[in-house]
C-alpha cells in the first residue's frame, strides 16, 4: 500500500520539506507520494503531514480562514502522524507566547507544550549547533535554528527527543513530533526518515 504525505503549502519552507520527504521515502524503501496541500479536501486524504517552518501567525490565520486548521486538527486527533517544524511546532502547541509582542494567534492545541516564540532573538540570532537526537538514537545532527521558539513547559505525556543547552528542542507525543530547528536544511534525512516510518506503521 502506498502512503500519501503532504506538506502544508500556505507559507514557509515547503519545497525543502517536499524534497526531504521524497528522499526519506526512497532511502527508507517505503512506497509513498508527497504533495503540497492547503485545502481541507487535500488534507483529508493524507496519511502524514509536515507543517513547515515559516511564520506561525500567517500559517495559522490563513489555514483558519480556509477551514484547513479544523481538518488538520481532526486528522491529528484521529491518529495521522504530523511533524511540526519551528512555526509548525508553534501551531501544534497548546500555548504560545512571543518574547516581545503580546498577541493571540490560532493554534491547533494538540501538543501539550508551551512555547515562547523567537526566544533566541530575531533573525540576527539564528544559529547552527550540533545536537543529538537521543530519543531517536541519532548521536549527531546539524541543528539549524532560525528565529526559533523555545519549549518552556512539556506535559507529562510528552517525550523529549532532543535537548540543547538543557532545553527541549525536539518533542514527541504519540503521532505528533515538534522541533525548534529545521531538519529540512540539515543535509541529513534522519528526522524525516523517522517521521515517514511513523506513517507506515
Ligand atoms: N519565528 C517564527 C514564528 O514565530 C518561526 C520561525 C521559523 O519557523 N523558522 O512563527
Which hetero ligands occur in this complex?
glutamine
Question: Structural class of the helices, strands and pairings?
Answer: alpha/beta
- By oligomeric state, this entry counts as single chain
Mean pLDDT: 94
Query: So what's the overall shape?
Result: globular
Distance between the termini: 12 Å
Strand order of the largest sheet: 2-1-3-4-12-11-10
Q: Strand tally, please?
A: 12
Largest sheet: 7 strands, mixed
Sequence stretches where pLDDT stays below 50 over 5 or more residues: none
**How many helices in DSSP terms?**
6
Helix content: 25-40%
Rg to the nearest angstrom? Answer: 15 Å
Give the DSSP E fraction (strand runs of 2 or more residues).
25-35%
Topology as a string of helices (H) and strands (E)? EHEHEHHEHEEEEEEEEH
Written account of the structure:
The protein is an alpha/beta fold and 201 residues long. The strands form three sheets. Strands 2-1-3-4-12-11-10 form a seven-stranded mixed sheet. Strands 5-6-9 form a three-stranded mixed sheet. It has a two-stranded antiparallel sheet with strand order 7-8. The longest helix is centred in the N-terminal third of the chain and has 15 residues. The mean pLDDT is 94. Bound molecules: glutamine. Glutamine binds next to helix 5.
Record keyword descriptors for this entry.
alpha/beta; seven-stranded mixed sheet; three-stranded mixed sheet; 6 helices; binds glutamine
Amino acid at each position: 500500500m502506498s502512503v500519501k504525505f503532504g506538506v502544508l503549502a500556505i507559507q514557509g519552507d515547503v519545497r525543502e520539506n517536499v524534497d526531504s520527504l521524497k528522499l526519506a521515502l526512497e532511502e527508507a524503501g517505503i512506497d509513498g507520494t508527497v504533495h503540497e496541500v492547503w485545502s481541507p479536501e487535500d488534507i483529508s486524504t493524507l496519511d502524514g503531514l509536515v507543517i513547515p517552518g515559516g511564520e506561525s501567525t500567517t500559517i495559522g490565520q490563513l489555514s483558519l480562514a480556509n477551514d484547513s486548521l479544523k481538518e488538520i486538527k481532526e486528522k491529528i486527533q484521529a491518529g495521522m502522524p504530523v511533524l511540526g517544524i519551528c512555526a509548525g511546532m508553534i501551531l501544534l502547541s497548546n500555548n504560545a507566547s512571543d518574547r516581545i509582542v503580546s498577541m493571540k494567534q490560532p493554534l491547533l492545541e494538540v501538543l501539550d507544550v508551551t512555547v515562547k516564540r523567537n526566544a533566541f532573538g530575531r533573525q540576527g540570532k539564528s544559529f547552527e549547533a550540533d545536537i543529538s537526537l537521543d530519543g531517536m538514537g541519532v548521536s549527531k545532527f546539524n541543528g539549524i535554528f532560525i528565529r526559533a521558539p523555545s519549549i518552556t513547559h512539556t506535559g507529562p505525556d510528552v517525550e523529549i527527543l532532543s535537548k540543547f543547552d538543557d532545553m527541549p528542542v525536539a518533542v514527541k507525543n504519540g503521532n505528533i513530533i515538534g522541533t525548534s530547528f529545521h531538519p529540512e536544511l540539515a543535509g541529513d534525512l534522519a528526522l524525516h526518515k523517522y517521521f515517514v516510518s511513523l506513517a507506515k506503521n
